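Hi, here's the filled form for the chain we discussed.

Project: internal
Contact: R.S.
Residues: 422
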Amino acid sequence: MTAQSLGTHLKHDQPDSSGAATPAASQDASKDTPRPKAAAPKPARPSSPIAPPAGRARLKRRHLALALSFVLAVVLPSLTAAWYLWTQAQDQYASHMGFTVRREEAPSAVDLIGGLASLSSSSSSDSDVLYEFIQSQELVKQVDEALDLRALYSRHHDDDPMFSLAPDASIEDLVNYWQRVVQISYAPGTGLIELKSLAFTPEEAQAVATEIFRQSTRMINALSAIAREDTMRYAREELALAQQQLTEARQALTAYRTQNQIVDPSADIQIQMGLLTTLQQQLGNELIDYDLLRDNAQPGDPRIAQAEQRIAAIRSRIEQERSKFGGGDPATDYPTIVAEFERLTVERQFAEQKYTGALSNFDTAQAEAQRQSRYLAAFVQPTLAERAEYPRRALIMGLVVLLSTVAWSILALIYYSLRDRK
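And the returned structure, exactly as it came back:
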C-alpha cells in the first residue's frame, strides 16, 4: 500500500469537525454493531369513511317540477288575486253607528220623598235581544222590503261576483251575505252596540244603517208595548176577578136579607130583647094585679078569670118570643140567622178587601206602565263615508300570498319526506 493510499484511507476514517463519523466509518460501525429488530407496525383504525368528492350540482327534473309547482301554487294565485282585487273588485264604503237601549223611569212621589229616583238606566237584556235581532232573518227581510237589498248589492255581480250578491239569491243567501256587509260589535257589560254597514256607495251604506236603526227602534217599542200590556192585563184580570167575587158576596147577602126580611140581625135582636123585657114587665104587673084581685074579690068573680087569661096569654107570648132564640124553626131561629149572616158578612168584607187591593195594584201597574219607557238611544248617528275602506286589498293580497306559500311549503315537505323513505 502506498503512502498516498494510506493517507487517503485515514482521511476517510477520521471524524469530521462536528464529531460525526464519516460515511465509511459509519458503514463499518453499522456492520460491526448489531441493530435491534424493528417492531411490526400496528394496523391503523379507520376513522370516518371518506366520502367520495361531490360532483358538480346539476339541475334535475324534480327541481324543475318543484319550481313549476311554486309558480302554480303561489305565483299564479297571487297574480290572479292581485288582478281581481285591483281591476274587478268594486269599492265599498262603510257607515258607522252606535246605539244602546235605555229605560226611562219617571220618579213617583214616594221615590222623590225617599230619594230613590232613577232617571235613566240601561237594559242589558234588551240589548241582548236587539243584538240577536239585527242578525236575524226577520230584520233582513224588513230592510230588504224597504231598500231592495238584492238590487242594491247585486248590480256589480257581473264584474265582481266575489264581493257581490247574486241577483237570484234566496233569503238564506241574503242572510249569509248580510253577515259580511253588516258587522256588529256588542259589549254585554255596558249594553253598547256598535254597527258598521257596507255598500257600494256612501249614501247606500248610510241608508242601510239608518233603516237598521229604524227597524230596531220599532222592535224595542213593540217590546215595551208587550211588556206594558202584559203588566196591565194581569192587573186587569185580578181586578175583574175581585170585582166579580165582591158582587157575588153582596148579592148573596142581599138575597139572605130578603129571604129572612132582616136587614141587621143585631138590631132585630135588640128589638126582640126589648119586646121580651116589656112582656116580662107586663107579666109581673098582671101577676101582682091577679094576686090583689084574688085576695079582695069573691070566689067566682069574672075578673079573676080575665086576669088568669091575660097572664096565660102573656106567658104564651113570652114562650113564643123566647123560642126564636133557639130550639125553634130554623127560618126564625136567631142563632142560625146570625151565624149565616155573619158568614155572608165576612165573605163580603174579604171580597171588599181583595177588591181594594186589586184596585190599588191596578192603579200602581198603570202608573208604572205609564212612567217606564224603553227607547233606543244613538250615541253615534249613521255616518257618511268620504272614501272607500273595503275591500282591504293589501290585507287580502298578503293573506293570499302567505297561505299559498305555507300550503306549497307543506306539500313540498311532504313530498320530499315520502321520497326519502323509498
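Let me know if anything looks off before we file it.
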